[in-house]
Specification:
Blueprint (H helix, E strand, L loop, with lengths): L7 H50 L2 E2 L2 E2 L12 E7 L5 E4 L3 H8 L8 E6 L2 E12 L2 E11 L1 H49 L17 H49 L5 H32 L7 E5 H18 L3 E7 L3 E5 H17 L6 E8 L3 E8 L21 H6 L6 H11 L3 E7 L3 E9 L6
Parallel strand pairs: 9-11
Antiparallel strand pairs: 1-2, 3-4, 3-7, 5-6, 6-7, 8-10, 11-12, 12-14, 13-14
The protein binds adenosine-5'-triphosphate and magnesium ion.
Length: about 450
Protein backbone atom coordinates (compact mmCIF):
# COMPACT_ATOMS: atom_id res chain seq x y z
CA UNK A 1 0.00 0.00 0.00
CA UNK A 2 1.24 3.45 -0.86
CA UNK A 3 2.12 5.54 2.16
CA UNK A 4 0.37 8.90 2.34
CA UNK A 5 2.57 11.93 2.67
CA UNK A 6 1.09 15.20 3.80
CA UNK A 7 2.66 18.56 3.03
CA UNK A 8 4.44 20.11 6.00
CA UNK A 9 1.99 23.01 6.19
CA UNK A 10 -0.93 20.61 6.60
CA UNK A 11 0.92 18.63 9.23
CA UNK A 12 1.88 21.77 11.15
CA UNK A 13 -1.66 23.17 11.01
CA UNK A 14 -3.19 19.87 12.00
CA UNK A 15 -0.99 19.51 15.07
CA UNK A 16 -1.58 23.07 16.04
CA UNK A 17 -5.36 22.85 15.63
CA UNK A 18 -5.52 19.55 17.53
CA UNK A 19 -3.63 21.10 20.40
CA UNK A 20 -5.82 24.18 20.34
CA UNK A 21 -9.00 22.06 20.31
CA UNK A 22 -7.74 20.06 23.25
CA UNK A 23 -6.88 23.20 25.23
CA UNK A 24 -10.20 24.86 24.42
CA UNK A 25 -12.13 21.72 25.34
CA UNK A 26 -10.29 21.40 28.64
CA UNK A 27 -10.75 25.08 29.36
CA UNK A 28 -14.50 24.93 28.68
CA UNK A 29 -15.09 21.87 30.84
CA UNK A 30 -13.10 23.39 33.70
CA UNK A 31 -14.92 26.72 33.42
CA UNK A 32 -18.28 24.99 33.32
CA UNK A 33 -17.62 22.79 36.33
CA UNK A 34 -16.01 25.52 38.43
CA UNK A 35 -18.81 27.97 37.69
CA UNK A 36 -21.48 25.41 38.52
CA UNK A 37 -19.78 24.59 41.80
CA UNK A 38 -19.45 28.25 42.70
CA UNK A 39 -23.08 29.00 41.93
CA UNK A 40 -24.29 26.04 43.98
CA UNK A 41 -22.16 26.95 46.98
CA UNK A 42 -23.43 30.53 46.68
CA UNK A 43 -26.96 29.19 46.58
CA UNK A 44 -26.30 27.05 49.64
CA UNK A 45 -24.99 30.01 51.59
CA UNK A 46 -28.08 32.02 50.66
CA UNK A 47 -30.41 29.18 51.72
CA UNK A 48 -28.66 28.84 55.08
CA UNK A 49 -28.84 32.58 55.81
CA UNK A 50 -32.46 32.67 54.80
CA UNK A 51 -33.32 29.66 57.02
CA UNK A 52 -31.56 31.21 60.00
CA UNK A 53 -33.27 34.52 59.45
CA UNK A 54 -36.70 32.94 59.20
CA UNK A 55 -36.20 30.77 62.25
CA UNK A 56 -35.21 33.79 64.34
CA UNK A 57 -38.42 35.51 63.39
CA UNK A 58 -40.72 32.57 64.28
CA UNK A 59 -43.38 33.02 66.89
CA UNK A 60 -42.75 30.48 69.68
CA UNK A 61 -44.95 30.09 72.72
CA UNK A 62 -44.25 27.68 75.59
CA UNK A 63 -41.89 25.66 73.42
CA UNK A 64 -44.52 25.35 70.69
CA UNK A 65 -44.33 26.93 67.24
CA UNK A 66 -47.40 28.92 66.48
CA UNK A 67 -48.38 28.94 62.88
CA UNK A 68 -47.96 32.39 61.53
CA UNK A 69 -50.86 34.32 60.15
CA UNK A 70 -48.93 35.06 57.08
CA UNK A 71 -46.68 32.43 55.59
CA UNK A 72 -43.09 33.18 56.53
CA UNK A 73 -41.90 32.67 52.95
CA UNK A 74 -44.53 34.83 51.33
CA UNK A 75 -43.35 37.70 49.19
CA UNK A 76 -39.92 36.12 48.74
CA UNK A 77 -38.47 34.06 45.92
CA UNK A 78 -37.96 31.23 48.40
CA UNK A 79 -39.97 28.11 49.08
CA UNK A 80 -40.44 26.90 52.58
CA UNK A 81 -41.91 24.27 54.91
CA UNK A 82 -42.23 24.19 58.69
CA UNK A 83 -42.33 21.00 60.77
CA UNK A 84 -42.83 20.50 64.45
CA UNK A 85 -40.36 18.18 66.10
CA UNK A 86 -40.05 15.35 67.07
CA UNK A 87 -43.48 14.39 65.69
CA UNK A 88 -42.58 15.81 62.26
CA UNK A 89 -45.99 17.33 61.73
CA UNK A 90 -46.10 19.64 58.78
CA UNK A 91 -47.27 23.04 60.03
CA UNK A 92 -47.14 24.94 56.78
CA UNK A 93 -45.55 24.47 53.31
CA UNK A 94 -45.65 25.74 49.76
CA UNK A 95 -43.32 23.05 48.46
CA UNK A 96 -45.01 20.33 46.38
CA UNK A 97 -45.73 17.43 48.70
CA UNK A 98 -44.01 14.80 46.56
CA UNK A 99 -40.78 16.84 46.59
CA UNK A 100 -40.90 17.35 50.32
CA UNK A 101 -41.37 13.66 50.91
CA UNK A 102 -38.39 12.91 48.73
CA UNK A 103 -36.30 15.26 50.81
CA UNK A 104 -37.43 14.21 54.27
CA UNK A 105 -37.51 10.46 53.62
CA UNK A 106 -34.23 9.88 55.51
CA UNK A 107 -33.89 10.65 59.25
CA UNK A 108 -30.66 12.52 58.47
CA UNK A 109 -32.19 15.23 56.34
CA UNK A 110 -31.58 17.95 58.97
CA UNK A 111 -28.82 20.28 57.78
CA UNK A 112 -28.64 18.56 54.36
CA UNK A 113 -28.47 20.37 51.01
CA UNK A 114 -30.13 18.55 48.12
CA UNK A 115 -31.15 19.32 44.57
CA UNK A 116 -34.40 17.74 43.42
CA UNK A 117 -35.98 17.67 40.02
CA UNK A 118 -39.64 17.97 39.25
CA UNK A 119 -41.88 18.87 36.39
CA UNK A 120 -41.17 22.62 36.61
CA UNK A 121 -37.47 22.32 36.80
CA UNK A 122 -35.22 21.76 39.78
CA UNK A 123 -35.06 23.07 43.28
CA UNK A 124 -32.40 23.16 45.98
CA UNK A 125 -33.49 22.44 49.54
CA UNK A 126 -31.91 22.97 52.92
CA UNK A 127 -33.24 22.36 56.43
CA UNK A 128 -32.36 24.09 59.64
CA UNK A 129 -33.40 22.89 63.16
CA UNK A 130 -35.27 25.30 65.46
CA UNK A 131 -34.07 25.27 69.03
CA UNK A 132 -35.91 26.16 72.22
CA UNK A 133 -34.25 25.57 75.57
CA UNK A 134 -31.46 23.69 73.85
CA UNK A 135 -33.93 21.26 72.40
CA UNK A 136 -35.04 20.91 68.81
CA UNK A 137 -38.70 21.83 68.61
CA UNK A 138 -39.09 22.23 64.90
CA UNK A 139 -37.46 22.05 61.47
CA UNK A 140 -37.55 24.65 58.80
CA UNK A 141 -36.98 23.68 55.16
CA UNK A 142 -35.98 26.44 52.74
CA UNK A 143 -35.78 25.97 49.01
CA UNK A 144 -35.05 27.99 45.96
CA UNK A 145 -35.59 27.24 42.32
CA UNK A 146 -32.42 26.50 40.36
CA UNK A 147 -34.08 27.26 37.04
CA UNK A 148 -32.27 30.57 36.59
CA UNK A 149 -28.92 29.02 37.35
CA UNK A 150 -29.66 26.10 35.06
CA UNK A 151 -30.56 28.54 32.33
CA UNK A 152 -27.27 30.40 32.83
CA UNK A 153 -25.35 27.13 32.66
CA UNK A 154 -27.27 26.10 29.57
CA UNK A 155 -26.46 29.40 27.91
CA UNK A 156 -22.82 29.03 28.79
CA UNK A 157 -22.82 25.54 27.32
CA UNK A 158 -24.43 26.96 24.18
CA UNK A 159 -21.78 29.66 23.93
CA UNK A 160 -19.03 27.05 24.24
CA UNK A 161 -20.61 24.79 21.65
CA UNK A 162 -20.81 27.72 19.27
CA UNK A 163 -17.49 29.38 20.04
CA UNK A 164 -15.16 26.38 20.19
CA UNK A 165 -15.75 25.26 16.59
CA UNK A 166 -15.59 28.91 15.51
CA UNK A 167 -12.21 29.38 17.21
CA UNK A 168 -10.95 26.13 15.72
CA UNK A 169 -12.10 27.20 12.29
CA UNK A 170 -10.42 30.61 12.60
CA UNK A 171 -7.26 28.97 13.97
CA UNK A 172 -7.18 26.42 11.14
CA UNK A 173 -7.53 29.08 8.47
CA UNK A 174 -5.00 31.32 10.22
CA UNK A 175 -2.68 28.34 10.70
CA UNK A 176 -2.81 27.41 7.03
CA UNK A 177 -2.17 31.01 5.98
CA UNK A 178 0.76 31.40 8.40
CA UNK A 179 2.25 28.01 7.51
CA UNK A 180 1.84 28.81 3.84
CA UNK A 181 3.59 32.13 4.24
CA UNK A 182 6.36 30.72 6.41
CA UNK A 183 6.99 27.76 4.15
CA UNK A 184 6.66 29.57 0.86
CA UNK A 185 10.44 30.19 0.59
CA UNK A 186 10.99 26.43 0.83
CA UNK A 187 9.03 25.88 -2.37
CA UNK A 188 11.26 28.53 -3.92
CA UNK A 189 14.38 26.78 -2.63
CA UNK A 190 13.16 23.48 -4.12
CA UNK A 191 12.47 25.15 -7.46
CA UNK A 192 15.89 26.82 -7.65
CA UNK A 193 17.65 23.67 -6.46
CA UNK A 194 16.00 21.74 -9.31
CA UNK A 195 17.17 24.31 -11.83
CA UNK A 196 20.79 24.11 -10.73
CA UNK A 197 23.06 21.96 -12.80
CA UNK A 198 26.82 21.56 -12.88
CA UNK A 199 26.90 23.69 -15.99
CA UNK A 200 25.14 26.60 -14.33
CA UNK A 201 25.89 27.29 -10.72
CA UNK A 202 25.15 30.99 -11.05
CA UNK A 203 21.55 30.73 -9.78
CA UNK A 204 20.82 32.18 -6.34
CA UNK A 205 17.72 32.27 -4.17
CA UNK A 206 18.24 35.93 -3.30
CA UNK A 207 15.48 35.82 -0.71
CA UNK A 208 15.24 38.86 1.55
CA UNK A 209 16.95 37.96 4.83
CA UNK A 210 14.31 37.48 7.52
CA UNK A 211 16.53 36.35 10.37
CA UNK A 212 14.50 33.19 11.01
CA UNK A 213 15.49 29.58 10.36
CA UNK A 214 14.23 29.63 6.78
CA UNK A 215 16.01 32.92 6.11
CA UNK A 216 19.13 31.30 7.51
CA UNK A 217 18.64 28.23 5.37
CA UNK A 218 18.21 30.36 2.25
CA UNK A 219 21.30 32.37 3.06
CA UNK A 220 23.34 29.25 3.79
CA UNK A 221 22.09 27.76 0.53
CA UNK A 222 23.26 30.82 -1.41
CA UNK A 223 26.63 30.81 0.33
CA UNK A 224 27.01 27.12 -0.45
CA UNK A 225 26.23 27.79 -4.11
CA UNK A 226 28.76 30.61 -4.08
CA UNK A 227 31.45 28.29 -2.72
CA UNK A 228 30.51 25.57 -5.18
CA UNK A 229 30.60 28.00 -8.07
CA UNK A 230 33.96 29.38 -6.98
CA UNK A 231 35.44 25.98 -6.53
CA UNK A 232 34.02 24.84 -9.85
CA UNK A 233 35.42 27.92 -11.53
CA UNK A 234 38.82 27.31 -9.96
CA UNK A 235 38.71 23.72 -11.11
CA UNK A 236 37.88 24.82 -14.63
CA UNK A 237 40.62 27.44 -14.56
CA UNK A 238 43.06 24.83 -13.29
CA UNK A 239 42.22 22.44 -16.10
CA UNK A 240 42.52 25.24 -18.68
CA UNK A 241 45.84 26.43 -17.28
CA UNK A 242 47.16 22.89 -17.03
CA UNK A 243 46.33 22.03 -20.61
CA UNK A 244 47.79 25.32 -21.77
CA UNK A 245 51.00 24.74 -19.83
CA UNK A 246 51.30 21.23 -21.22
CA UNK A 247 50.61 22.31 -24.78
CA UNK A 248 53.59 24.69 -24.88
CA UNK A 249 56.41 22.18 -24.21
CA UNK A 250 54.73 19.65 -26.50
CA UNK A 251 54.62 22.26 -29.28
CA UNK A 252 58.31 23.08 -28.73
CA UNK A 253 59.28 19.42 -28.78
CA UNK A 254 57.24 18.85 -31.94
CA UNK A 255 58.74 21.85 -33.76
CA UNK A 256 62.28 20.93 -32.75
CA UNK A 257 61.84 17.34 -33.82
CA UNK A 258 60.18 18.30 -37.12
CA UNK A 259 62.78 20.87 -38.07
CA UNK A 260 65.59 18.46 -37.12
CA UNK A 261 64.09 15.80 -39.35
CA UNK A 262 63.44 18.21 -42.22
CA UNK A 263 66.56 18.37 -44.36
CA UNK A 264 70.14 17.91 -43.41
CA UNK A 265 71.48 19.42 -40.14
CA UNK A 266 74.91 19.59 -38.68
CA UNK A 267 75.73 17.45 -35.65
CA UNK A 268 75.78 20.66 -33.64
CA UNK A 269 72.26 21.54 -34.76
CA UNK A 270 70.97 18.04 -33.88
CA UNK A 271 72.60 18.28 -30.50
CA UNK A 272 71.01 21.69 -29.92
CA UNK A 273 67.57 20.37 -30.93
CA UNK A 274 67.93 17.32 -28.65
CA UNK A 275 69.03 19.53 -25.78
CA UNK A 276 65.93 21.65 -26.19
CA UNK A 277 63.77 18.56 -26.43
CA UNK A 278 65.38 17.15 -23.27
CA UNK A 279 64.91 20.43 -21.42
CA UNK A 280 61.26 20.65 -22.40
CA UNK A 281 60.65 17.01 -21.47
CA UNK A 282 62.16 17.64 -18.05
CA UNK A 283 59.98 20.68 -17.65
CA UNK A 284 56.93 18.72 -18.74
CA UNK A 285 57.74 15.83 -16.45
CA UNK A 286 58.04 18.21 -13.48
CA UNK A 287 54.82 19.89 -14.48
CA UNK A 288 52.95 16.59 -14.74
CA UNK A 289 54.39 15.50 -11.42
CA UNK A 290 53.17 18.71 -9.74
CA UNK A 291 49.78 18.55 -11.43
CA UNK A 292 49.25 14.99 -10.28
CA UNK A 293 50.20 15.98 -6.76
CA UNK A 294 47.66 18.82 -6.73
CA UNK A 295 44.98 16.64 -8.31
CA UNK A 296 45.54 14.01 -5.64
CA UNK A 297 45.42 16.60 -2.88
CA UNK A 298 42.20 18.03 -4.34
CA UNK A 299 40.66 14.59 -4.30
CA UNK A 300 41.86 14.12 -0.71
CA UNK A 301 43.81 11.14 -1.99
CA UNK A 302 47.18 12.50 -0.90
CA UNK A 303 48.09 10.69 2.30
CA UNK A 304 50.78 11.97 4.61
CA UNK A 305 53.15 9.48 6.17
CA UNK A 306 53.65 11.16 9.49
CA UNK A 307 56.77 10.55 11.51
CA UNK A 308 58.84 12.43 14.05
CA UNK A 309 61.39 14.55 12.22
CA UNK A 310 64.48 16.40 13.31
CA UNK A 311 63.84 19.55 11.32
CA UNK A 312 67.19 21.12 12.16
CA UNK A 313 69.10 18.15 10.74
CA UNK A 314 66.77 17.84 7.78
CA UNK A 315 67.22 21.45 6.66
CA UNK A 316 70.93 21.40 7.41
CA UNK A 317 71.23 18.34 5.14
CA UNK A 318 69.23 19.98 2.35
CA UNK A 319 71.33 23.13 2.53
CA UNK A 320 74.59 21.25 2.17
CA UNK A 321 73.16 19.46 -0.86
CA UNK A 322 71.88 22.66 -2.48
CA UNK A 323 74.91 24.80 -1.63
CA UNK A 324 76.86 23.82 -4.78
CA UNK A 325 73.86 24.74 -6.95
CA UNK A 326 73.53 28.11 -5.20
CA UNK A 327 77.27 28.65 -5.67
CA UNK A 328 76.99 27.86 -9.35
CA UNK A 329 74.51 30.74 -9.52
CA UNK A 330 76.98 32.99 -7.70
CA UNK A 331 74.94 32.92 -4.46
CA UNK A 332 75.71 32.11 -0.87
CA UNK A 333 73.29 29.76 0.90
CA UNK A 334 73.62 29.52 4.67
CA UNK A 335 71.82 28.45 7.81
CA UNK A 336 72.28 31.45 10.10
CA UNK A 337 70.33 30.21 13.10
CA UNK A 338 69.46 26.64 13.97
CA UNK A 339 67.59 25.97 17.23
CA UNK A 340 67.18 22.26 17.87
CA UNK A 341 63.70 21.69 16.43
CA UNK A 342 61.44 18.70 15.96
CA UNK A 343 58.22 18.38 14.08
CA UNK A 344 55.81 15.63 13.19
CA UNK A 345 55.49 15.40 9.45
CA UNK A 346 55.85 13.57 6.18
CA UNK A 347 59.55 13.71 5.39
CA UNK A 348 59.13 13.70 1.61
CA UNK A 349 56.60 16.57 1.77
CA UNK A 350 58.63 18.61 4.25
CA UNK A 351 61.67 18.27 2.00
CA UNK A 352 59.53 19.22 -1.02
CA UNK A 353 58.25 22.29 0.87
CA UNK A 354 61.68 23.66 1.74
CA UNK A 355 63.15 22.57 -1.58
CA UNK A 356 60.53 24.67 -3.41
CA UNK A 357 61.24 27.71 -1.22
CA UNK A 358 65.02 27.46 -1.55
CA UNK A 359 64.64 26.74 -5.27
CA UNK A 360 62.62 29.96 -5.63
CA UNK A 361 65.16 31.93 -3.63
CA UNK A 362 67.94 30.64 -5.92
CA UNK A 363 65.90 31.28 -9.07
CA UNK A 364 64.84 34.80 -8.16
CA UNK A 365 68.09 36.13 -6.70
CA UNK A 366 70.67 37.63 -9.03
CA UNK A 367 74.34 36.77 -8.86
CA UNK A 368 76.17 37.91 -5.74
CA UNK A 369 73.09 37.58 -3.58
CA UNK A 370 72.61 35.84 -0.24
CA UNK A 371 70.10 33.28 0.96
CA UNK A 372 69.81 32.90 4.71
CA UNK A 373 67.83 30.27 6.51
CA UNK A 374 66.97 30.43 10.16
CA UNK A 375 65.15 27.89 12.31
CA UNK A 376 63.77 29.17 15.57
CA UNK A 377 62.06 27.12 18.25
CA UNK A 378 59.16 29.00 19.88
CA UNK A 379 58.06 26.13 22.05
CA UNK A 380 54.71 25.43 20.45
CA UNK A 381 55.79 26.37 16.95
CA UNK A 382 58.90 26.15 14.86
CA UNK A 383 59.50 29.17 12.69
CA UNK A 384 61.63 28.61 9.63
CA UNK A 385 62.45 31.55 7.40
CA UNK A 386 64.10 31.61 4.02
CA UNK A 387 65.38 35.05 3.29
CA UNK A 388 66.91 36.14 0.00
CA UNK A 389 68.33 39.35 -1.37
CA UNK A 390 66.63 38.79 -4.72
CA UNK A 391 64.38 40.71 -7.04
CA UNK A 392 61.46 40.72 -4.63
CA UNK A 393 57.77 40.55 -5.40
CA UNK A 394 55.74 43.70 -6.20
CA UNK A 395 53.12 44.41 -3.56
CA UNK A 396 50.12 43.91 -5.83
CA UNK A 397 51.25 40.36 -6.62
CA UNK A 398 51.82 39.26 -3.05
CA UNK A 399 48.22 38.19 -2.33
CA UNK A 400 48.24 35.92 -5.39
CA UNK A 401 51.55 34.14 -5.39
CA UNK A 402 50.14 31.07 -3.61
CA UNK A 403 47.58 30.62 -6.35
CA UNK A 404 48.06 27.87 -8.87
CA UNK A 405 49.95 28.86 -12.02
CA UNK A 406 50.45 32.36 -10.70
CA UNK A 407 53.72 33.94 -11.80
CA UNK A 408 54.65 37.52 -11.27
CA UNK A 409 56.16 37.98 -14.68
CA UNK A 410 54.98 35.25 -16.99
CA UNK A 411 57.68 35.69 -19.60
CA UNK A 412 60.57 36.10 -17.19
CA UNK A 413 59.51 33.39 -14.75
CA UNK A 414 58.81 31.02 -17.58
CA UNK A 415 62.44 31.29 -18.65
CA UNK A 416 63.47 30.26 -15.16
CA UNK A 417 61.56 27.03 -15.81
CA UNK A 418 58.77 27.80 -13.41
CA UNK A 419 55.15 26.94 -13.93
CA UNK A 420 53.77 28.72 -10.89
CA UNK A 421 52.78 25.60 -8.98
CA UNK A 422 55.60 25.49 -6.43
CA UNK A 423 54.09 27.85 -3.88
CA UNK A 424 50.58 26.42 -4.09
CA UNK A 425 52.08 23.03 -3.33
CA UNK A 426 54.01 24.60 -0.41
CA UNK A 427 50.81 26.06 0.93
CA UNK A 428 49.00 22.72 0.73
CA UNK A 429 51.84 20.94 2.53
CA UNK A 430 52.00 23.54 5.30
CA UNK A 431 48.22 23.47 5.81
CA UNK A 432 48.17 19.69 5.85
CA UNK A 433 50.72 19.83 8.67
CA UNK A 434 48.61 22.29 10.67
CA UNK A 435 50.98 25.17 9.99
CA UNK A 436 51.00 28.47 8.23
CA UNK A 437 53.09 30.13 5.54
CA UNK A 438 53.70 33.86 5.19
CA UNK A 439 55.59 36.07 2.80
CA UNK A 440 57.19 39.44 3.09
CA UNK A 441 58.87 41.13 0.20
CA UNK A 442 60.32 44.38 -1.05
CA UNK A 443 60.75 44.84 -4.72
CA UNK A 444 64.42 44.94 -5.68
CA UNK A 445 65.53 44.14 -2.15
CA UNK A 446 64.49 40.63 -1.37
CA UNK A 447 61.88 38.24 -0.10
CA UNK A 448 61.37 36.30 3.09
CA UNK A 449 59.13 33.25 3.30
CA UNK A 450 58.23 32.16 6.81
CA UNK A 451 56.87 28.71 7.63
CA UNK A 452 55.30 27.97 11.01
CA UNK A 453 54.97 24.32 11.93
CA UNK A 454 53.62 22.83 15.17
CA UNK A 455 56.58 21.78 17.30
CA UNK A 456 57.23 18.36 18.69
CA UNK A 457 58.61 18.57 22.25
CA UNK A 458 60.99 15.67 21.95
CA UNK A 459 62.03 13.01 19.48
CA UNK A 460 60.85 9.58 20.56
N1 LIG B 1 61.93 34.25 -3.55
C1 LIG B 1 61.24 34.85 -4.49
N2 LIG B 1 61.64 36.06 -4.96
C2 LIG B 1 60.94 36.68 -5.94
N3 LIG B 1 59.82 36.19 -6.50
C3 LIG B 1 59.38 34.99 -6.07
C4 LIG B 1 60.05 34.28 -5.06
N4 LIG B 1 59.37 33.13 -4.84
C5 LIG B 1 58.32 33.16 -5.68
N5 LIG B 1 58.33 34.26 -6.43
C6 LIG B 1 57.32 34.65 -7.45
O1 LIG B 1 56.15 33.91 -7.19
C7 LIG B 1 55.78 33.15 -8.35
C8 LIG B 1 55.20 31.85 -7.91
O2 LIG B 1 56.15 31.00 -7.36
P1 LIG B 1 56.04 29.45 -7.52
O3 LIG B 1 57.12 28.78 -6.79
O4 LIG B 1 54.65 29.08 -7.20
O5 LIG B 1 56.17 29.25 -9.06
P2 LIG B 1 57.46 29.13 -9.96
O6 LIG B 1 58.66 29.16 -9.11
O7 LIG B 1 57.34 30.14 -11.01
O8 LIG B 1 57.25 27.70 -10.60
P3 LIG B 1 57.50 26.27 -9.96
O9 LIG B 1 57.79 26.48 -8.53
O10 LIG B 1 56.24 25.56 -10.22
O11 LIG B 1 58.65 25.70 -10.70
C9 LIG B 1 57.05 33.00 -9.12
O12 LIG B 1 56.76 32.84 -10.48
C10 LIG B 1 57.76 34.31 -8.84
O13 LIG B 1 57.28 35.30 -9.70
MG1 LIG C 1 58.90 27.78 -7.47
Amino acid sequence: MKKLYFPLKIKLTLWYVLLLAFVLFLFSIMTYLILEKMLISNEDATLKTQAQQVSSLLDIENGKIKSADELFYANTEFYGALYSYPDLRLIESNIPKALLDQYTYSPNFIGKYETLRYSKGSIRLYSEPIYYDNKIIGIIVIGQSLNLMNLTMKNLFGIFIFLIPLFILIASLGGIIIANKALHPISHIIKVAREISVGDLSKRLNLPYTGDEIGNLAQTFDLMLERLENSFERQKQFTNDASHELRTPIAVIQTQAESALNGKRTIEEYRKALEIILEESKHMSKLIHNLLFLARSDANAERLLMENLNLSDLIEGMVSELEPIAESHGLTLKVVKNDPSYVRGDQTRIIQLFYNLIDNAIKYTPQGGRIEISIENYGKFIKTSIKDTGIGIPKEHLPHIFERFYRVDKARDKKSGGSGLGLSICKWIVNAHGGKIEVESQEGKGTTFTVWLPALRKMS
